[in-house]
């Protein structure tokens, strides 16, 4: 070995890297020289591996003292050193940052000038030529915005990938340190949300779709008492967020419900549950009537008089005779804890709401809701369990609720270790108490009436490949599943293992095809794979037989199990009924045969015994079918995955009984010297 690397490993053919080709194909041609020199850095790493420089730093022995009175005249090994690689990397980061700062600054100035142009043209009276000219400039700004976004994403991916490749073969890992440093680089730190907001306003004004003003406050966003809605949720990859925003804002303007220049508003919610996690279980299983109770506020943390919304969400299936409902009313922050403890009664809530001039909802309905929520908290012993916080970009057309949309980014969940007399935690949290969600969450809300069709642009967005539909995704359920220990949460939502599926797939692709490891060499499992992969225990003989016939398995103690609680459609209930009717038909046929055998069994005791036995089996089969039907129906109503949806035991036993009946029929007929029964 030389420098800690086996010589035969360095002399073997190297696997080609694919990301370099992807970078060449996807980069903006006129900005080609401003992207990180991925191929150059890769060749530098390859040269370091060949000369052993990647293993030159060997711990504390290389961390000696230095003197400013000395020189650097030393014998140096061949090939680029770690210091030279870091200098080259710093130069690439600086190059990307400078180009981003330049292009982002130019875009900001263009957007500001465009906003002033529109204001001047509107003051003097807009004509058709002005509208066309400004619209074209807005589209050019949107194109530039997307180019900058793609430049940032590709550059960041290139830098992270080259750092990963460096660490896999170097004795001096730097990935974590540079990952943290990159977060403070201008091209990642400086955002362009103000540009998106201005472009949205210009689009709205040009198309006559100005966003709602404060006087036209939307109760679906931050006020009101009760409303019904039907929502579909999607995950959006971080690299696609800007593109999705640009697609939507061409049709719907950005709707702001707090002050600020950014295109999004901070939304914070504190969810309640008890020690048994009854609310979590209900929301996970989508049990009819399952509730969620939360306190929500908008913008910065509330002060004494800031309105905090007391909300209850009730789940119901639309086809099952109901609609999911979100109900709420507001209280000043200073009164929330007293209300939760029962010191402020529903009558007291009535007095508070009556004195609140901003309250526009149904007072009696709000008081009734206050009584019910207070009852939930006190009777179920609910307490703060989880906090969610995210930045919400809402899209809505003035005076039209047909299509509404919201995009939540920077979503994070945290445990809420409140002290006595608090409904929200005011202290600091540890990293283990916080979960960062890696995707954006898009909600598309449609309120169609009669024969009204879904707008074409919505269908185009849904079919664009930029979205991943996650039916019934819930921040509350996901947060508790991610943060609570397995001893408390034994069931996970069906989407839980999909959160990092794409990132893990890309990491596997990198490991399989893009790294410059010697060809033909097996790769050891990473620490993450070793730590997270679950290997089930070997089943016992009894468990194996039970699993074979009953499809039964025993989860291990404290093992979190993925549970796919998807929406159960009406046709599934009908399928269960059809299965029961088929079993009933089979039992009717067997019963008819048994009755026929008994009818001709006079003076034939052996034949009579066969008829009686077949009659008993028919009754048992019918009873088995009835019990299975009821168990499946109950499982469907409770959204359970433990119900016997697939039946291996019943059909197997029917086949065995029929075979035994045929054998007995032949044996009795032959032994008594009569013709076989038909």
What are the defining features of this structure?
678 residues, alpha+beta, twelve-stranded antiparallel beta sheet, extended
Helix and strand topology:
Blueprint: H1 7-10, H2 19-26, H3 38-51, H4 82-124, H5 128-169, H6 175-182, H7 186-189, H8 193-206, H9 219-222, E1 226-228, E2 231-236, H10 241-249, E3 254-255, E4 265-273, H11 278-285, E5 291-298, E6 307-314, E7 325-332, H12 333-341, H13 346-355, H14 363-379, E8 383-397, E9 400-415, E10 434-436, E11 440-446, H15 456-462, E12 467-469, H16 475-483, E13 491-493, H17 501-514, H18 527-532, H19 541-550, E14 561-563, H20 570-599, H21 605-637, H22 649-672
Parallel strand pairs: 13-14
Antiparallel strand pairs: 1-7, 2-11, 2-12, 3-8, 4-5, 4-8, 5-6, 6-7, 8-9, 9-10, 9-11
Q: How large is the count of helical segments?
A: 22
**Main beta sheet:** 12 strands, antiparallel
Q: How far from one another are the termini?
A: 84 Å
SS strand fraction: 5-15%
The strand count comes to: 14
Regions with little confidence, pLDDT below 50 for 5+ residues = 1-17, 212-225, 512-560
Mean pLDDT: 80
Q: Which structural category fits the helices and strands?
A: alpha+beta
Q: How big is the Rg?
A: 34 Å
């Amino acid at each position: 070995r030389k420098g800690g690397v086996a010589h035969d490993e360095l002399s073997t053919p190297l696997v080609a890297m694919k990301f370099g080709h992807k970078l060449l194909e996807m980069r903006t041609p006129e900005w080609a020289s401003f992207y990180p020199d991925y191929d150059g850095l890769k060749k530098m790493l390859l040269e370091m591996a060949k000369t052993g420089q990647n293993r030159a730093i060997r711990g504390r022995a290389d961390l000696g003292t230095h003197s400013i009175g000395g020189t650097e005249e030393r014998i140096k090994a061949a090939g680029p050193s770690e210091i030279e690689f870091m200098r080259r990397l710093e130069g690439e980061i600086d190059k990307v940052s400078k180009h981003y700062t330049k292009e982002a600054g130019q875009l900001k100035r263009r957007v500001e000038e465009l906003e002033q142009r529109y204001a001047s043209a509107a003051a003097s009276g807009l004509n058709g030529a002005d509208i066309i000219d400004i619209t074209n400039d807005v589209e050019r700004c949107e194109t530039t915005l997307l180019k900058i976004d793609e430049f940032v994403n590709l550059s960041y991916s290139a830098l992270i990938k080259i750092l990963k490749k460096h660490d896999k073969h170097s004795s001096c890992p730097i990935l974590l340190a540079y990952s943290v440093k990159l977060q403070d680089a201008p091209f990642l730190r400086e955002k362009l949300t103000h540009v998106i907001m201005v472009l949205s306003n210009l689009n709205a004004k040009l198309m006559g779709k100005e966003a709602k003003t404060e006087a036209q406050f939307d109760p679906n966003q931050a006020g009101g008492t009760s409303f019904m809605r039907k929502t579909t949720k999607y995950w959006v990859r971080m690299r696609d967020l800007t593109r999705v925003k640009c697609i939507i804002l061409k049709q719907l303007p950005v709707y702001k419900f707090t002050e600020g220049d950014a295109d999004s508003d901070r939304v914070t919610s504190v969810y309640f549950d008890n020690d048994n996690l009854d609310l979590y279980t209900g929301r996970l299983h989508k049990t009819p009537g399952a509730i969620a109770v939360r306190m929500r506020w908008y913008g910065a943390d509330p002060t004494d008089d800031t309105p905090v919304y007391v909300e209850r969400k009730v789940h119901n299936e639309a086809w099952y005779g109901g609609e999911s409902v979100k109900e709420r009313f507001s209280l000043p922050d200073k009164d929330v804890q007293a209300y939760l403890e029962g010191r402020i009664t529903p009558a007291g809530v009535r007095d508070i709401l009556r004195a609140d001039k901003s309250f526009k909802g149904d007072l009696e309905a709000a008081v009734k809701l206050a009584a019910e929520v207070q009852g939930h908290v006190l009777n179920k012993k609910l307490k703060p369990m989880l906090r969610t916080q995210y930045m919400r970009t809402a899209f809505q057309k003035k005076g039209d609720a047909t299509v509404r949309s919201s995009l939540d980014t920077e979503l994070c969940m945290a445990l809420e270790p409140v002290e006595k007399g608090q409904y929200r935690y005011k202290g600091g949290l540890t990293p283990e108490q916080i979960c960062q969600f890696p995707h954006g969450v898009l909600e598309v809300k449609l309120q169609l009436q009669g024969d009204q069709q879904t707008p074409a642009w919505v269908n185009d967005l849904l079919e664009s490949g930029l979205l991943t539909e996650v039916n019934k995704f819930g921040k509350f359920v996901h947060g508790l599943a991610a943060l609570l220990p397995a001893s408390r949460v034994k069931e996970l939502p069906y989407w839980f293992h999909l959160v990092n599926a794409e990132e893990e797939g890309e990491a596997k692709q990198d490991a399989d095809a893009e790294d410059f490891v010697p060809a033909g060499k097996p790769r050891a499992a990473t620490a993450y794979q070793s730590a997270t992969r679950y290997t089930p225990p070997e089943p016992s003989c009894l468990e194996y037989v039970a699993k074979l016939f009953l499809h039964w398995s025993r989860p291990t103690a404290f093992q979190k199990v993925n549970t796919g609680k998807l929406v159960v459609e009406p046709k599934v209930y009908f399928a269960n009924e059809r299965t029961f009717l088929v079993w009933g038909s089979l039992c009717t046929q067997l019963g008819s045969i048994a009755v026929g055998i008994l009818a001709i069994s006079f003076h034939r005791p052996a034949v009579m015994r066969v008829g009686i036995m077949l009659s008993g089996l028919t009754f048992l089969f019918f009873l088995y079918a009835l019990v299975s039907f009821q168990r499946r129906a109950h499982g469907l109503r409770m959204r359970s995955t433990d119900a016997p949806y697939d039946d291996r035991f019943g059909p197997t036993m029917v086949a065995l009984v029929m075979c035994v009946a045929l054998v007995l029929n032949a044996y009795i007929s032959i032994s008594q010297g009569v013709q076989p029964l038909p």
